[in-house]
């Protein structure tokens, strides 16, 4: 038989643990003793004893006529929080070497690769569109959404990429994802068997390299030259190739038409698949962009991946893939098994944003701004750093690369470190 004192001790301990764990914050009001007693099915005096002990130990403070409030700040308390046990269960070996990338804080001038300026995001318009969706039927629909994404957004994306990039597609071809990274994950889940070989650009996007490694694939770097990926250097056992042909990451060059055709010929000859990452091609500063590899594909061997992380902001977590019909059912199933579907209110608001012509207007506006910044940086590099650096020509995107001139002996790691000490963030090509 449980005594009243036992209940009082349990209540005391659970409230104290909640305070120490941060579930009850300093200054937060606790339920009245009468209310808590009724909810727990105990006497009011039992709860009062627990509260009195907590007050005596300084965890709570009682205010006449107002109630009991948390007075202990766990961050300054000498009492240790209860931590989870270290555990005896460990991940597969590959996960021991995969880092979690974190953006450095406190940089006054951040030249990190691939992040749009958040100040250019149309926040007022976006807030209005989200409010419209919150008042609409979508917010009241409690059932799960479609794994492939909100139909209106899929249709809007198909129209957008058809007009802006010449992609051959319709709404049925589109699968909306949580950023481009999830698109690559879905493709890997559907196509890669354990131990399969995948070719990526060298230098190239490290997150894709790490992702495919985590799926058990053998990742092979293929060199990039002035025309793009060196197709002849793709190993014979590779059947999946990842490329960034419109704006090679991180060098910035565009893949030539001849090299694009050679890549498609490789895919047909080897029974391969090409993942085309068109990550920031909307921001074109010079000339007309080459058509995507997908638009040249006549055999259904290209999966086109896009994202709104660069065009808008990464925090929206909206990307998409456009796949041949033979792969779509499997990709949709993989999406459903991964997270069922994306956030429907954001997708619906983005569909409105595209259909109203606001995305096209936004792209034109920010492309001018980014183009101006690009020219300013190139001017400074060529005027003040030409002795050491040669700018790699680029006609699009949110970053540019510069190579050390031949014979220049400089430790770029030290340059990055010393720049960071002065509040300036830059990155080396060695990181890619």
Record the SSE blueprint.
Layout: H1 4-20, H2 33-40, H3 44-56, E1 60-63, E2 67-70, H4 93-96, E3 109-110, H5 123-135, H6 137-140, H7 151-165, E4 174-177, H8 179-191, E5 197-202, H9 206-214, E6 218-225, E7 228-229, E8 238-243, H10 257-270, E9 273-277, H11 293-296, E10 302-307, E11 319-322, H12 328-339, H13 344-355, H14 358-384, E12 389-391, E13 402-404, H15 412-421, E14 424-425
Parallel strand pairs: 3-14, 5-6, 5-8, 8-9, 9-10
Antiparallel strand pairs: 1-2, 4-11, 6-7, 10-11, 12-13
Helix pairs in contact: 1-3, 2-3, 5-13, 7-13, 8-9, 8-12
Features:
15 helices, 41% helix, alpha/beta, single chain, eight-stranded mixed beta sheet, 432 residues, two-stranded antiparallel sheet
């Amino acid at each position: 038989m449980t005594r009243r004192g036992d209940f009082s001790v349990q209540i005391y301990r659970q409230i104290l643990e909640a305070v120490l764990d941060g579930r009850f914050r300093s200054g937060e009001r606790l339920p009245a003793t009468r209310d808590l007693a009724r909810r727990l099915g105990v006497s009011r005096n039992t709860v009062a004893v627990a509260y009195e002990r907590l007050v005596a130990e300084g965890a709570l403070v009682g205010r006449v006529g107002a109630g009991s409030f948390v007075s202990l700040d766990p961050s300054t308390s000498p009492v240790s929080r209860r931590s989870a046990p270290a555990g005896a269960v460990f991940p597969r070996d590959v996960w021991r070497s995969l880092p979690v990338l974190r953006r450095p804080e406190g940089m006054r001038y951040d030249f990190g690769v691939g992040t749009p300026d958040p100040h250019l995001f149309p926040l007022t318009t976006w807030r209005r569109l989200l409010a419209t969706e919150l008042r609409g039927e979508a917010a009241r629909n409690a059932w799960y959404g479609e794994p492939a994404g909100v139909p209106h957004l899929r249709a809007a994306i198909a129209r957008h990429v058809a007009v802006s990039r010449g992609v051959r597609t319709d709404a049925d071809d589109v699968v909306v994802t949580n950023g481009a990274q999830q698109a690559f994950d879905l493709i890997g889940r559907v196509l890669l068997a354990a131990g399969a070989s995948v070719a990526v650009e060298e230098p190239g996007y490290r997150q894709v390299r790490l992702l495919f490694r985590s799926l058990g694939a053998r990742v092979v770097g293929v060199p990039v030259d002035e025309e793009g990926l060196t197709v002849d250097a793709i190993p014979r056992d590779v059947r999946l190739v990842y490329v960034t042909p419109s704006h090679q990451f991180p060098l910035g060059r565009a893949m030539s038409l001849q090299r694009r055709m050679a890549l498609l010929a490789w895919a047909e000859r080897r029974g391969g698949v090409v993942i085309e990452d068109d990550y920031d091609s909307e921001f074109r500063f010079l000339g007309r962009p080459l058509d995507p590899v997908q638009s040249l594909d006549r055999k259904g061997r290209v999966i086109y991946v896009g994202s709104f992380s660069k065009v808008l902001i990464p925090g929206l977590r909206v990307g998409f893939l456009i796949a041949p019909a033979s792969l779509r059912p499997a990709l949709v199933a993989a999406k459903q098994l991964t997270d069922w579907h994306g956030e429907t209110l954001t997708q619906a608001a983005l569909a409105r944003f595209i259909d109203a012509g606001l995305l096209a207007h936004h792209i034109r506006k920010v492309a001018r701004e980014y183009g101006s910044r690009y020219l300013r940086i190139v001017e400074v590099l060529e005027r003040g750093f030409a002795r050491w650096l040669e700018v790699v020509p680029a006609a699009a995107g949110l970053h540019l690369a510069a190579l050390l001139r031949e014979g220049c002996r400089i430790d770029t790691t030290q340059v990055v470190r010393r720049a960071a000490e002065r509040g300036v963030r830059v990155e080396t090509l060695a990181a890619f």
